[in-house]
Amino acid sequence: MTPSTARRRARVVAFGVGAAVACTPIAQPAPSTVPRNACPEYPCAAYAQDAGAACAAGACVDTAPPPPSSRLVLLVAVPTDAHVAPGVTFALSADQASNAGVTVLQASLNSGRYLVTPTTIADLQTNTGVTLTDTSLPVHVTYRPLWPQGSPSPTPGPDAGAPLTDAVGLGLALYPIEAEAVPASGFLSGPFGSPDVGFTTYVQASVDYERTLTPDPPWDQTFPPDVSRVAFVAGTVTEGQLQDEYAPDLTRKTEALTATIPTFDLSRADGQTLDGWTAYLRDATTKRPISPIKPLSGTSTPDGGLVLPTSHHPHPQDALTNAELVMAPGAGQSLATAAFPAVAILPRAEKYPFVPDPVTVQGSIESADGNAVVADVVFEATGIYALAPAAAAAQEDAGAPTEGGPEAGAEAGVQFPLQTQGFEYAARTRAQSDGGASTYTIDLPRGVYRISVRPPDVSSSGVDAGPRSQAVAVVEAFDTGQSTDPIQGPPVALQLAPITAGTAVIADGRPLCGATVEALPVHCARPTGGEAGSPLPDTAACMPRYAAGQTSTPDGSFVLALDPGEYLLRVEPVDGTSLPWVTQAVSVPTSAPIFVRIPAPVRRGLQLFGQDGVAITNALVRMFTIRPSGPAIELGRAVTDASGRFEMYIDPAAE
Questions:
Q1: For residue 396, what pLDDT band results from cuts at 50, 70 and 90?
Q2: What pTM, to 2 d.p., does this model score?
C-alpha cells in the first residue's frame, strides 16, 4: 500500500450496530369539536375549486391530475427499534414513491476502520504515540446527506448538473448520521496495544453522503479527518463483515518542487505570543476542518514548520484544493479569526496582520414602553481594521512607524484599512438593568459590525398568552473607527413586536378553529438604524424569532406578536381532520389582516417495507416541497400503522 492509497480489504470482524435517536410520535384522533374534511356530511361541491373536489374514502379531495413533475420529497424516520436501519431517515422523491403503492426502503450497512500505517507515521515525522504497526484508531464518523440544489430527487440523473450541498442547509430534515467507535474483533490492535476498533452504521442506499472520519482525542491533533464523498448500493452485507479500511492519504502539495505534506511557518506581525491560538486547514465551501486542529504557542511555529496533513478520497489534484488556512486566537483575546487562501509553494510563511488594539464599546438599550430591558446583544463583524505586513512596511517607508505595537503605530499615523474578507468575528453580551437604563460593555476588535439585539423569547407569542414581547432590533454598519476608547455603541430603542392578525377558513366556508399557526422566519429582521448598504447574508443572530399560536373558536381567527421581517405563515389543522397544511408568505408589519384559505387536499399514501420484508411501523413520515428559491417547506406529517401504511392530505398548490 502507498501512503496516497486507502486500503480496501474484506475481513471478518464482529461489530455491534449502533442506532441513532429518532422520535416516533403516535398520531392522535382529532377532537370532535374541530372541523373535519368529511363527506358526504359536508358536500364536496362547496369547496368550489378550479379542478373540482370529489368524495374519496370519506374525505373531499382535489380531482386535478398530478403535475408532470412534482416538487414533493418524502422523508421517513425509521424507529430506533427496527431490525434494519434503526434510526435512519430515508428520502424519497415523488417518482420513487408511487402513490398508494408499496415502497421498499433501500439501506446499506457501512463498516470500516481508520487505519494508521508505519508509512503514515513516518510521513508525519512526529511522535504519534502509536506503535509502528498497522493500528486502528477510534473515530467518530459523520455521514452528511447531500442534495442536488433545486432538485426534488436525492438521486438526479448524471446530466442534471445541479451542485450537491448539505441537505439540512436546504431546509430538509435530513440530519447527519453519527456513528461512534465500536469493538472489532480482527487481528489489528488499537493505540498502545488496545483492542481493535472500527465503526459501523446503516445508511440509505443511492444517496450521496459526505463522510468524515474524525479520530478521537488525542489522535485528532496528529491525524487528519478523512473526508470523502460516497454513495452506497443496497446490499446484503452482514453485520460481521468489514467493508473498507481507510488510511489517511496525506495528500501532497503537488505544486512544490518535491511533493510535501502542507507545512506552514506561522507568527504574528506584531511579534506577540501565539499562546492559546490554534491553526488548521478547512474546506473553503463547507468551512469544516480538513486537517488536525493544532495548538500554537510561543511567537512562531517550531523549526520545520507546522504540519497540517489532509486526507481526501478520491484524491484531489492538490492537497490544498479549495482549502483555507485558519489562525484562530484563543478565547477571550478579542481578536478576529484570520482565514487565508491556502495557496503557493510550501512550506509557506504566514503572518497574522497588524491590528489596532481592541476597543471597549459601552452601549444602552431602551424600551419604547418604558419598562426595564433584558436582551442579548450580538456583534457580527462585516469588516476588520488590519494592516498586512507588506503594507505596514510601505507605510513605515513613508514615515509612519509601526514600532512599539499597533496602538503606538495608530497614534503615529498608521492607517489600518478595513478588510471585508479574510477575517471572522462574532461576540455576544447581555444588556441588563440595575434599576435604570439597561447597559452593556464589551471589548471588540476594531471594525464594522452588524448588531442584533434579541430580547428573551417568551413561552408563546400569542397575545392572549401574556404580555407582548419587545421585537428584535438590527443595526447595520456600526463602525468602531480607530480612535481611542472607550466608545459609545449606537442607541437602540426596542419597540413592541407588531401584532399580526388573521383568519383561517376552510374553502367550503367553515371557520377553522383549533389549528396551529406557525410563523417561520425567512430572512433577517429589517435594520432599524445605521447604513443599510448591500444586503448581508442571513445569520441565526439576526433572524426574527419563530412564533406559534392557535386559531380560536369559533371564527378561526389568530393573533401573533412577531418581529419585523419576512415569514412563511403555516396553518396546520388538527391531526386526523383530513385537512392540509397551508403556507403563505407574510411581511411584518402587515398592512391588512391575513386571510388563509384551506382547500380540499390531495391524498397521498404508501405502504413502506424494509429490505427484510418487514413492514415499517410507527415511522414518522414528513412531506416537503422543494421551492425554486428559499428553503424547503414541510407540508404535513403522518405515522405508519401496523401494516406500514400511511395517508397524508396535502395542499394541491404545493405540488
A1: low
A2: 0.86
